[in-house]
Design a protein that fits this description.
Elements lengths: L1 E4 L8 E5 L6 E5 L2 E4 L3 E4 L1 H10 L3 E3 L2 E3 L1 H10 L13 E2 L2 E2 H4 L7 H14 E2 L4 E2 L5 H8 L5 H11 L7 H31 L5
Helix pairs in contact: 4-6, 5-6
Length: 199
């Protein structure tokens, strides 16, 4: 079962999946579609594709979490896909190793851009607060790679991946360094005034 969350605390549309067997829940980002009567409902196709990537399954209209999916496969082995043959290789290298790097889908790009719109200060050329490429990727979901966020951020928002917290820490370090330099000069002056010990 899908439970609609049109706007999360961060302002991103989400949907919560509830397992029809055990009641376990998982929340993911999801686009919404307008239906007759001006109703907004989750894009079920997109939601089920994302849930499938998280290990969920929809069998005969029932939504199952990864645990229940595995339990059911152990009861019904025929539902488990057969093992494939040894991976194909070319000159000793697996085809998987030769495949191009995985790229974000259009939907994932839109999710990254939606988060960057909220988290990145283009005027200051940095993230607001403590956000980073990594925290943005984690906030969207486990299938989002920080490298994708960095690439889109550099292309559309700004080259700097630092944030307000990093700037504040650097400022504190500089202020502390100036204080230490001043104390060192005062100590050198006192030492010079004392002079060498009499013999």
């Amino acid at each position: 079962m899908l439970i609609a969350i049109p706007r999360s605390a961060r302002g991103v549309p989400q949907v919560t999946a509830k397992c029809d067997d055990c009641g376990a829940e998982q929340t993911i980002t999801c686009d919404y579609e307008r239906r007759p009567g001006n109703r907004w409902v989750p894009n079920e196709g997109q939601a089920h594709r994302k849930l499938s990537a998280h290990g969920w399954a929809r069998v005969r209209g029932r939504l199952r979490c990864p645990t229940c999916k595995l339990d059911r496969k152990s009861i019904n082995p025929e539902e488990t896909p057969p093992m494939t043959a040894k991976p194909a290789t070319i000159e000793g290298k697996s085809l998987a190793a030769l495949a191009p790097l995985r790229q974000p889908t259009r939907e994932q790009k839109r999710e990254i851009i939606a988060m960057l719109d909220m988290a990145y200060d283009t005027a200051g050329a940095r993230y607001r607060g403590t956000d980073t490429d990594k925290t943005i990727a984690e906030a969207i979901g486990p299938n989002i790679m920080p490298g994708w966020v960095a690439e889109i951020r550099e292309d559309l928002y700004g080259p700097a991946g630092e944030n307000d917290e990093m700037r504040a820490i650097r400022a504190e370090i500089e202020a502390t360094q100036k204080t230490l330099d001043s104390l060192r000069k005062r100590l050198d002056a006192v030492c010079a005034a004392v002079g060498p010990k009499a013999r």
